[in-house]
Amino acid sequence: MSSLAPKPALDAVAEAEAKWLTDALLGRRDCDTFRKLKDLCRHLRGSAIAPRFRSPPPTGQERITQCADAMYRIFQSMHQGSDPYSFARRARCFLEVGSNPGGFTRFLLEQPHTHGVGVTLPVDEGGIGRAIPPNDRFELHELNLLDLVSHYISSGTLPFTRTTFDSIILDVDHSSPRLLVAQLLLALSTIHDGGQILLTLSCIERPQAARILIAFSKVADYISLSSPPQAQTWGVFYLHAQTVRVNTPAYRKLIDNLKRLWYRIHSIHTRDPTWDEEDLITPWEEVMKKSNMDLIAKLGNPVWETQLKALYRAFEVNSKQSD
């Protein structure tokens, strides 16, 4: 290419790299489930098939209650069996950023020795108010997350009775890059050494989720992913980072990079990071390394399997129809 040729716009670069990641995963021998999932999505779009739910999707308070119950069941399934590393068994002092509609917190507070702090949006900013009944082991704060993180970064203080936690749940809007940065910075700044973090993300095959996954793999001893079985939440998955090591060079580098990223994007109106700025989470060249692509495929396969089954059920499509 001539050196005089104009460089593509940044959004075009991001789009091209996102396509590269998808194509690279589709081309792997160990990503057959992902290929089936993409084929089914194309089939459904081309056929204009509408999902067939047994009853109309809920709205209003009914939807809030159903979402809370679904979140409760997700934690319940993670708690089954004798696994000593299940999230609830290790949670004694937790922070939930989201607490909306509160299914995760409700389950954790059923454990008698657990205490927690919750952060939810003010009602005038889209919050739903107190979704969790009052409990002397749980304090709930209605706060703007961006303002909270900005204040914490500048002052080092938080308006909570506890400011470090062994377990942190991040369940704010996963489609907002700026909110993801704020959540990551708050969680990694307040986690105990050896603690655990549960983060809601969307589509592991997308660059932002891949960057975050690789970043956590460097600071935690073990990473697992799970996906809710409902088609209404298609694409959503939960990243569980266990035994986060805060006294390591990798952790210190990630924290420093997230702070640098925050200083760049934060202003009166905090903006989303650019493609190049997201290299501060994980450089794109690292995502493309074979070892990291292997990790994405390994952890992604169970998630894609759950998503594929959910779409088959919701659209009443036989697996042979999408071949």
TrEMBL record:
SUPFAM superfamilies, alphabetically? S-adenosyl-L-methionine-dependent methyltransferases (SSF53335)
**Superkingdom, natural source:** Eukaryota
Q: Which GO terms describe its biological process?
A: methylation
Q: Could you confirm whether the keyword Methyltransferase appears in this record?
A: yes
Q: Name one GO molecular function term.
A: methyltransferase activity
Q: What name does UniProt use for this protein? A: FtsJ-like methyltransferase
List, alphabetically, the InterPro entries matched: SAM-dependent_MTases_sf
Q: Which UniProt keywords are listed?
A: Methyltransferase, Transferase
